[in-house]
Amino acid sequence: MTTENNGDFSLNDNQNIKVQTVNPGQVINIECDKMTIKTSRVNEDKPLLTGTTTLYNQNGNNFLSPSFKTSPNSSGVSDTIGKNGDVGESTLDYNPLLNRQLENPTSNFDTMVHLLKGNIGTGILAMPDAFRNSGWVVGLICTILLGAICTHCMHILVRCSHELCVRTQSPSLSFPNVAEMAFEYGPPKLRKYSSTASKFINTFLVITQLGFCCVYFLFVATNLQEVISHYFFYMSVQWYLVILLVPMIFLNCVKSLKYLTPASFLATVLTVIGLGITFFYLLQGLPKTSSVKAFSSWHQLPLYFGTAVYAFEGIGMVLPLENNMKNPEAFNGMTGVLNTGMVIVTCLYTSIGFFGYLRYGDAVKLGSITLNLPSQDLLAQSVRAAMAFAIFLSYSLQFYVPIGIVWPALKGYFHSQSTQHYAELSIRVFLVTLTFALAAAIPNLSAVISLVGSFSSSALALIFPPIIELMTFWDQCSGKEFVLMFIKDIVIVIIGFLGFGFGSYVSLWNIIEPISR
């Protein structure tokens, strides 16, 4: 159907519907001989007035519940409604990618650097430990499969974001906004949970990213301890955490993602060098695959899942990176930034996991393969130092997400600009100190990685995106297309819930059991 400010809706059965002039905040009432369109929840804040419509036939039966939109300031919205209530594709002229106003947009190269650095962190160095918990055959298959699923879920999130940006005429949406709008446009009985969905995403994002920051703290401290204790003197990990606290606070006072690019680029270079030298050690004197297990045990498999999902969980960075791009259309596509980056990430994870486990077997150190490198070699010690510095610089990139959620929620309590400035700095200091305290309380790198991956990363990477897709496109797919999408999404959600439950339980047990001795 097509409408202007004051015009006709044309149905395929040649019936015409007259619509009154629509003013901001006004509820739209449209009537015709055979159906009534009722709208509610008109949004006064957006230039595009959005209402939820329900179409009724002569018998009063609901046979169509699309989202109706019209704008008094635009050239109109076009939809096609058939005799049976079938809705065609919306033909809005609004393009969210062309309406973004960015202070410091990132280039394709900047985005690729951030994407790689956001994914290639402590998780990749824990992959040999993951393979130890799965076995080399299961590890190879599951890592490639999990990489493909996680990448697909990232594409789901971006696709739903673009669709909902068009519907709401918003230039960009965050992960929580996408979840909220998806439920807002979802099945009528679920729309009341839209704000709850947003809060869930925000909570898990903050938990996940701060969990990453705890792991980063521990990783840097543990590797520095290995280097310094070999050449100089021994100190406990907690003392290294204390030493790292002040420089970590200063680094995380940088507010713009654009200004983090040099640090991120340097961290990426150091990571590449460190991984290159690590591979040099791993590929020397490799034994036969028969020397290690093809499958470990069912009891250890949840630990593999937690570590692997932790490694792949970069979905929290996807929308911030895409929303901040100068050319966001280059993010998707077969050879886009996302696919290119995730193929590189998956290949690296699989390779270092397989060769690390094959080289050291069950003697793989928990949490990081760098701890297995020979302590007497200066080159090996340089890898530990380089990776520690790279992860130190990467902390700020992981911190960018939670501060972007927490600070806007608190900003309204501070009115003057100077007060807001100091309040934001105080919150940044508090959150960095919080991650320091948690890392000092549980100095078990492997267990923390697996717990963060199982509990929060699996929810963000595998559970929420398929649910968002079902909510977004529930009324826009044909019968067969919807069934296939439904089956695919439910399978991914089940995988996520299994990993969430079993992985969290086993990880918590591995943390609590040593303490209770």
From TrEMBL:
Residues 106-507 form the Amino acid transporter transmembrane domain. Signal peptide: none annotated. Keywords: Membrane, Transmembrane, Transmembrane helix. The keyword Transmembrane helix applies. It comes from the Eukaryota. One of its GO terms (cellular component) is vacuolar membrane. The chain crosses the membrane at residues 136-158, 200-219, 231-251, 263-283, 303-321, 333-358, 385-410, 422-442, 489-512. This is Amino acid transporter, transmembrane domain. It is found in: Membrane.
